[in-house]
Structures are given as structure tokens and as C-alpha cells.
Amino acid sequence: MRSATIEPLGEDETCVDLIVEGLDGQREFHQCKSSHNNSDVWTLSSLEVSGVLIKAFNQIQRTDCTFKVVSPLSFTQLSQLSLSAKNTTPNPQDFIEHQVDQSGKRQKLFEDLCHKLGLNINVEIDVEKAIQF
Known about the structure:
Blueprint: E1 3-6, E2 18-21, E3 27-32, H1 44-49, H2 52-63, E4 66-70, H3 76-86, H4 92-100, H5 104-116, H6 124-132
Parallel strand pairs: 3-4
Antiparallel strand pairs: 1-2, 2-3
Helix pairs in contact: 4-6
């Protein structure tokens, strides 16, 4: 680790509590959330309502960072989809065919995520943005 910045200022501060910069210069933006109402887990809707979803997406698009929500609450489906996205080929259609289309539950999650981020699942550049997210 090269550095850690707590509660950054400027453009980096939006929805970010901590920035960790690795020795390779890659930055991880962290948003700490202890809870959301009385929920036991996160959902796309709760991330959207809390403002995290679109702000995280904007930070990723702006900086090409990795964004992590640090919370005792889990979101297993999104975590698994994210891991699949990190391990996919550079071809967005491979991701759709081999990761998303393998499960109706995953298809719905991916479609809902794209919708909430204002992305069109039928446009390759939008699928690339969703994979990056």
C-alpha cells in the first residue's frame, strides 16, 4: 500500500470515506455503511435509495477506480456477479453468454442493475460499463 486517505476532499469525496492506493497506483474507493434501515442485507433498491449505487458508478467512470462498500450487511448476488465480471474475457458478449444468461436470477439482477445505472443491455459499450462496475 502506498497511501490511505480518510474522508478525501474535492471530486473524490462524493460517496467515499476512504481511498487506498496500491503500490501500482490503482486506487480503491471505500464507502462505509453500517446499516440500512432495519435490513439484514443490501439490495439494488437499497443501494439506489441510499445514493451509493449511482455515485459509485460515477466515481468508477470518472477515475477507473475499484469501488467497495464496506458493511456488515452482505449482497451476495452482486458480489458474485462482480467477481464473474472481473474474471471474464475482454468480450462483453462472452460475459452475457457465459455469466449472465446462465441463470434467470442473474439475468434479472444484471438487467435491474443496468436499468438503475441508466445503461442499455443491448448496447455493447453500456455492457462494458456494467462489467467495469
